[in-house]
Design a protein that fits this description.
12-stranded mixed sheet, 328 residues, 29% helix, 25% strand, alpha/beta, 7 helices
């Protein structure tokens, strides 16, 4: 399925319903399309000047067919016909989505978007039992993305089937690193199935082999039942963050035991590396990167804390003294 959305500027653009319907028919007639429909709004008073074209694509869709659809859409935008509208293009097959949320300005990276359509098809073929979502990388010649565009560009996710575990997550990430390295700059999320939760999120690079080795070791040791998350290049944390959540008890003492078992593995990686263990995957790390509860240790670095909010308990402080580098 393909979807297009366009939203209005300050001045009121002319009604382009007929043009949207024409573009929808053109895409509907292309190879690889099962059906197409548009969702059009021309209501400036309500702040709704946009359109979306949804296209259901074939299971046998090829990369070149997807690329042709995206190219046709972008040619329509580049013509200036839809100036003043906000546009989005989605290709869909079941829950799998490729989206081009192009906003209401010109696009500067047309070739990249067309290639990413091919990549989405290749990812679906590579991981046929998973759900693959890719929101294309949008670049405007006039400047950075608008606030309302944040989070709707340059993101990708792979949701594995229900029975997939941490090893399957590591295998997917290894494949991404080996075969889709050109997509590493995107914001990625790879999640295990519901029966064995766990996730790896990345931006600007994929995990190294050594980081994935630690990921596998932490997950494999279930002497204290827990689930894991690995984050690469988060916005407010060190470049690498392993977070563990206990699942049979919320007791801090249990999280401390888990930290004592697993910090030696984390400490084998180049510093700094943040490690947290608690009753939640957020690790009691606040929006500014400050720790607000136990257990948080930055190996080879120092976890920021606001003493007015939280000071490490003695057992946690012992781990900080052993693994961290904090100036007192």
């Amino acid at each position: 399925m393909v979807a297009l959305v366009l939203t209005g500027c300050a001045s009121t653009p002319p009604d382009r319903r007929a043009d949207v319907e024409r573009l929808t028919r053109q895409i509907a007639a292309m190879p690889g399309v099962h059906a197409a429909r548009e969702d059009f709004h021309d209501s400036p008073a309500q702040g709704m000047v946009d359109f979306r074209i949804d296209v259901d694509v074939s299971d046998q869709l090829t990369g070149e067919q997807a690329a042709a659809m995206v190219a046709r859409y972008l040619v329509g935008l580049d013509s200036g016909t839809f100036r003043g509208y906000r546009a989005e293009l989605d290709l869909r097959r079941g829950w799998n989505v490729f989206a081009v949320d192009s906003g209401d300005r010109r696009i500067a990276n047309i070739d990249q978007l067309v290639q990413q359509a091919r990549d989405w098809v290749a990812l679906r073929h590579e991981f046929p039992s998973s759900t693959v979502t890719l929101r294309a990388t949008i670049v405007h010649p006039s400047g950075p993305l608008a606030v309302q565009e944040q989070g709707r560009s340059n993101t990708a996710s792979i949701e594995l089937p229900d029975n997939a575990d941490y090893a399957a997550v590591a295998a997917v990430v290894s494949t991404l690193s080996a075969r889709f390295a050109h997509l590493a700059a995107m914001e990625w999320k790879v999640t295990a199935g519901k029966l064995h939760p766990g996730q790896i999120t990345t931006t600007r690079r994929f995990p190294t082999a050594a980081e994935l080795d630690v990921w596998n070791k932490l997950n494999a040791d279930q002497s204290i039942a827990h689930i894991d998350a690995l984050q690469i290049n988060g916005p407010v944390t060190p470049p690498v963050w392993f977070s563990e959540k206990t699942i049979e008890s919320r007791a801090v003492a249990l999280a401390m035991q888990l930290a004592e078992r697993h910090l030696p593995f984390v400490a084998t990686l180049p510093a700094p590396v943040l490690y947290s263990a608690s009753d939640q995957l957020s690790g009691h790390i606040g929006g500014g990167g400050y720790a607000r509860g136990p257990v948080s240790v930055t190996v080879g670095g120092c976890t920021p804390r606001d003493p007015r909010v939280y000071l490490p308990i003695p057992a946690e402080q012992a781990l900080i003294d052993r693994y961290a580098k904090c100036h007192r």
